[in-house]
Amino acid sequence: MSAQQSTPARVPPRPTEAGTLRRERLLTRLAAVADARLRVLLGPAGSGKSVLLRQLAATAPEPLPVRAAAGDGGLLAGLGSALGCAPEVDAVLTAFDRLGREVTVLVDDAHPGTAALTRLVREAPACVRFVVATRDERAVWATDVPGAVHWFGYADLRLRTWDVEELFSSVYGVALGPEEAAALCARIEGLPVAARLLHVDTVLSGARERAAAFAEPLAGSRQLAGWLSREVLGPLPPEVQEFMVGVSPLGVLDGPLCDALLDRRDSGAVLADLAAGQALTLPVPGGVRAYRFHTLLQQHLEGELVERRGRHLARQDHHSAAGHLVTAGHWAEAHRGYARAEDWVAAAEVRHRARAGVGGLRAAASVPHTLLDDDPWVALAEARRLRGEGRLAESYDRYLHAEDRLSDPGLRWQCSLERSGVARWIPGGEGERDGDPLVDDVSGHVAAAVRGRPVQLLARAVPATSPEWDLSRAVAAMLDGRPRLAAELAEPLGTGRGFVALAARLLVAVLAASTAGRVTPTEFAALSTDAQGAGWLWLARVARAGAALLDPDACADAAAVLDECREVGDEWGALLTGYVLAVGLVRAGHDEAVDVLTATAARAARLGARVPETWLRVLLADELGRRGDPAAAAERERTEALVAATAVQRAARQGAAAARAMRTPAAPAGPALAVVPEPVAPVPPVAVRCLGSYSLVVAGTPVDLDVLRAQARRVLRVLSMHYGQPLHEERLVAALWPDAPLKQAKHRLQVAISSLRALLRGYAVDGFGVLRHGSTYLLALPPGSAVDVADFAGAVRDWRESRRTRDLPAMVERGHRVLDLYRGELLSEEGATEWVLAKRESLRGEAAGVAVALAGLEMRRGDLTAAIEVCERALRIDELDHRLWSLLAEARSRAGNVAAARRGQQAYRTLLAEG
């Protein structure tokens, strides 16, 4: 029989082969467009295209399955054999013309350059339809095709959670729960071959071992590593493989980023070629020609980077990549890069900037969250961040997560040591187990001293002298009632920005403030800024509260810090802040000192901190006795029992003297003791703070606003912000509930006002409350009250008056007062809420304007140091004010510090570029 007269050999439907999952969802979608001229299955190696074609062949009418792996020759040979004709395009087209019935040609593994396939798709009769599977979108010329064309990409081919669950249960006979299936599906990003290879890896494992393996990063699988090297990287030229390994530290890939990292100019074209060739290179949603590697390939390439470059150079590559990512604004990837480079300070800074700028790392990530969650270096960076914030239980869990996954023995030991140190401070956990801490666990030894017998740490023979051990001995000396020894040990440590230096500075400052040493509130503020910049937020909070030891007005700030500690779950920070606040209140003679002492001592007891509890109760017993309270006797008995249990004999012997020293600073004994007690200013009946975080203090007692609902707190803030100005109810509802119907919004306002009035009435202060005049509301305060926004406005008016009269000394004095009163942006807890923005920017602009003028005045007076300090202080108010940067550079240049002036100018340019 001639080729023209031949009929095709009918291929019988094939059942789904064993070991594969029938893709019913995809088969249904393919069947729904069976009339299309061309259906393309486009996906990377291992995405299940061949299996799907075989399953489709079992149901398609007159299926003609062929492979095109060998190009035109293989394709035509397969069709010629099936149709009984010569392996030529014309012969195959003629055979198609003679069929007279529907035929589906199933082409597997089509590659670019198959001109025969393009011609067949275009010229075959309408009864012939094509299903083409390919890993390269350039393999199919889909324009000018008669009839519809439907593409099914990797997003369609990838497994879903239910597919993974069914695959393991129905095909592999392995019970996999929904959560395990979801986690595994996320880790493999639905790549079918990965599920099969992981099953091969774990086929002999029990359920527990298999679950543990699936919960780990999967790049360590030998089966997967071999398949990625063979099927994904193997077909690529060596120079392209080298490119992929080189750019892997970036995570998110685009032409400019890769060019900058590798110092080349063609990265965009290489990336586009990899994406078109489905080399597990995926487009980033929303990105402009931006890509990323599949999670499995990303992890594999990072392993290859270490193999080829060595661990040290690989860390440098990650560090370099992170710098480029910061410049491009890819915060999550930059954080990961710095973490893998083991630059923990840079990672913390990126984390802080990301939260301030874009709402968090995960929200900004272009790479899958799984890649971040599985990365042990990211987990370690997160553990250290949480430790710095004082959130110890969460930090401990992240340390465990990192320790389980870290492969470097040295880093894993360091992780274990830090985890052990954190554990010692967690109440009810590992921290209270019997037994000594590890030899090198300095934090553990300090925790043991806090719980009892600090003299043991003082007498301990340390394994090697180090700043950490010296600091621990200083803390032990303070706990044992030896402030002079503590200061002698701590003072030499206070240089640098590391934890030891910061903690030593704080210890010395607290000791000095408690014993009339040389210290000022400004030093506490500077210490708080330095600690925050270094990522030790709990230390920054305690330092911020430290001014309460010196300034009675700062007790309100310390109370706010105490609330902040409680909100974030920083119990130890709350204990230290409570101590500072209690001493400040005792020294200021406030009645609530007893309540704060009692609450703080109770917190110390809950934390198992028996030595701090002992000192707190010594002070409490003395304060009760001073007031003639009958509870003093019982408190003394309790204190004696604590002294016996903790072996802090000095607490009993020196208790009264220590209490007196805390209550009233001793008179200066000479030039070395420069703190002179200042007269205590009268406490205003009501004090309202809006600049910074909001607070309301009545007779020195902070009002607990947490008892109010959020909308009532917000109404109070609005009224406070506009103190002295009646606000119409429609203005209030328009600002606070812009999307609610007017009637409903007014009802909400009435409910909020009612709850506010009920709270304020409880303080029984005449003239204190929310007044209504017609349709307006006003916050009324008794005479002598203080509202910081009103004080700030008055100071600005005074400043302007002094400028009008050209009174230079008054201008300088009043300008500094304006800056002193601006203690932060207006109602910082409100974020970018619309009703506060205009007023906030107005106040910020006024403060910055005064600072510009003040710096200019100081320069004209010849005081360059004062001008520099004003500029640096004001840049914390508005870091984008070009006038301040210019004045700062000029002042530094005049002072002879040209290098600092240039650095400042470069910092300003960098700030503008990042903005």
UniProtKB/TrEMBL annotation:
UniProt name for this protein: HTH-type transcriptional regulator malT
Classification of source organism: Bacteria, Bacillati, Actinomycetota, Actinomycetes, Pseudonocardiales
Bacterial transcriptional activator domain ranges (all copies): 787-912
Gene source species: Actinokineospora spheciospongiae
Listed GO biological process terms: phosphorelay signal transduction system; regulation of DNA-templated transcription
GO molecular function, one term: DNA binding
DNA-binding is among the record's keywords: yes
Matching InterPro entries: AfsR-DnrI-RedD_regulator (IPR051677), BTAD (IPR005158), OmpR/PhoB-type_DNA-bd (IPR001867), P-loop_NTPase (IPR027417), Sig_transdc_resp-reg_C-effctor (IPR016032), TPR-like_helical_dom_sf (IPR011990), WH-like_DNA-bd_sf (IPR036388), WHD_MalT (IPR059106)
Domain of life: Bacteria
Keywords linked to the UniProt accession: DNA-binding, Transcription, Transcription regulation
Entry-linked PANTHER family: TRANSCRIPTIONAL REGULATOR REDD (PTHR35807:SF1), TRANSCRIPTIONAL REGULATOR REDD-RELATED (PTHR35807)
The keyword Transcription appears for this protein: yes
UniProt cross-references to Gene3D superfamilies, sorted A to Z: Tetratricopeptide repeat domain, Winged helix-like DNA-binding domain superfamily/Winged helix DNA-binding domain
Entry's family note: Belongs to the AfsR/DnrI/RedD regulatory family.
Signal peptide interval: none
Domain OmpR/PhoB-type: 700-779
Region (Disordered) residue spans: 1-21
